[in-house]
Structure formats: structure tokens, C-alpha cells
Amino acid sequence: MSKFSDFLREDQRLVILRLLAEQPAYRANSSVLRAALESFGHSMSRDQVKTELRWLEEQGLLDIENLDVVLVATLRERGQDVATGRAVAPGVKRPGA
Asked: How many structural domains does the chain have?
């Protein structure tokens, strides 16, 4: 994998966490997140978004509820800390200063 593709994946993960942090209940479904990622310049398939959500869940940054065709992601406290730069998670881009 190239350094640029690693950079993109890390940024996509940060954007997902930040999008969830902006939601009133800190949760959104994979379809809505895919559309929002598109507005940030990340063209991803639904499968790619679900893969990244599962990865973020494995890191303890969010919880996932499987609702058949979509995944509903809920930000965990550690995920919010990573989204704001108060904590660091390898594989997730740090927010800019």
C-alpha cells in the first residue's frame, strides 16, 4: 500500500469520527456517513465505509449496531477524544492545530 493511500485512509477515519461527534446523539448510519464523506472529498463505496466503521469499532472508538443493510455507528468517549485531538489512535489522522 502506498503512503498516499495510507494517508487517505487515516483521514477518512478522522472524518468519520468528526462527523459522529457533530451529531446530537453521536450516531449516524453508514449510508449517511458515506454521503457526508463524499462532501469532504472522499469517494468511498458503501462497503469501504462499513469496513472502516468495523475497523474503528475494533479500536474501541465507536460501537456498531447492524440493521441489515446499514450499520449504525455510535461514537464512544475515546473516539470523541481522538476526533478532537485529546487522544491519539494509530491509523487515525490527528486533527490539525
From this structure: 1
Eight-state DSSP code of residue 76: -
Range of the domain at 58: 3-81
In this structure, are residues 52 and 61 in contact, taking their beta carbons and an 8 Å threshold?
A: no
Classify residue 13 by its DSSP letter. Answer: H
DSSP string, 28-53: EEHHHHHHHHHHTT----HHHHHHHH
pLDDT tens digits, one per residue of 29-75:
999 999 999 999 999 999 999 999 999 999 999 999 999 899 999 99
CATH of the domain at 61: 1.10.10.10
Record the cell numbers describing residue 49, joined without a space: 465505509
The model's pLDDT over 68-84, given as tens digits with 9 standing for 90+, comes to: 899 999 999 999 999 99
In a domain, 91, yes or no: no
